[in-house]
Design a protein that fits this description.
It is built from eleven helices and ten strands. By secondary structure, it is an alpha/beta fold. The strands form two sheets. A six-stranded mixed sheet has the order 1-2-3-5-7-10, with helices on both faces. It has a four-stranded mixed sheet with strand order 4-6-8-9. The radius of gyration is 19 Å and the shape is globular. The mean pLDDT is 96.
């Protein structure tokens, strides 16, 4: 596939996906969704990719759905079909990746674009970034996981306020509220994201992927269920090559060389 609506490249140990419609603030189109599906498939099928960067080209991360692509809404559109086909599978696949997903949020992240960012694992935002739950401005409700992620990250009161008012928040506020991990200078955003991804690509990927799934499961598990999950997963990790390498490196007082297995 020739990528046009996104850029996709593989570096040593990690993949970088850039939403690439800067003239439209990287708003989603059917073509972009198709290319994202292909990019995620390549990542899923390549065990050498042990981290992922997701970012946007130009002055924005993603403005959500490109409403221009909808055309003149004469009849009653089935927006649920679009969610079933495009947005929901994308969120689920990103959450299911073993490789940690670093999201580098450059500029505005609005609507589905804001919530796509929240589906990542390590969120870095440029100081110029803004987060907008813009759905109320066109008579819709948050999607792309927004009603799931927001109350869990920032609490029900703030989640309702963002969704109902559609007011933007800046990167510093997002960091203070716990919506993202940290804010960096605009010019440092991509270099820091790449440095982080390169580091993650040297780490025990199998364990990192397990951590990711366990922490996500904890949001709905009881304490008993989570303790059982920790036991079962720890038993599995204890049989991994990376665990044996980690212990050997510790005893030999040298840096470990993890292989993600």
């Amino acid at each position: 596939m020739i990528f046009e609506a996104i850029e996709y490249r593989e570096e040593s140990g990690y993949a970088e996906i850039t939403l690439n419609r800067p003239d439209r603030l990287n708003a989603f189109t059917a073509q972009m969704h198709e290319e994202l599906r292909e990019a995620v498939t390549r990542i899923e099928q390549n065990p050498e990719i042990r981290a992922v960067i997701l970012t946007g080209a130009g002055r924005g991360f993603c403005a959500g759905q490109d409403l221009g692509e909808r055309g003149n809404i004469g009849g009653i559109p089935d927006l649920g079909e679009s969610l079933d086909k495009n947005y929901n599978p994308l969120v689920k696949r990103l959450r299911a990746l073993t490789a940690p997903v670093v999201v580098a949020i450059n500029g505005v992240a609005a609507g589905a674009g804001a919530n796509l960012a929240l589906s990542g694992d390590l969120l870095l935002a440029a100081k110029s970034a803004q987060f907008i739950q813009a759905f109320c401005k066109i008579g819709l409700v948050p999607d792309c996981g927004g009603t799931y992620f927001l109350p869990r990250l920032i609490g029900e009161a703030k989640a309702k306020a963002l969704a109902i008012t559609g007011e933007p928040i800046d990167a510093d506020t997002a960091e203070r509220w716990g919506l993202i991990w940290k804010v960096v200078d605009d010019e440092s955003l991509l270099p820091e994201a790449r440095k982080l991804a390169a580091h993650l690509a040297t780490q025990p990927t199998k364990a990192l992927g397990a951590m990711k799934q366990m922490l996500q499961a904890s949001l709905t598990n009881s304490l008993d269920a989570q303790l059982d999950l920790e036991r079962d997963t720890q038993r599995e990790m204890g049989c991994s090559e990376d665990f044996r390498e980690g212990v050997a490196a510790f005893l030999e007082k040298r840096p470990p060389v993890f292989k993600g297995r």
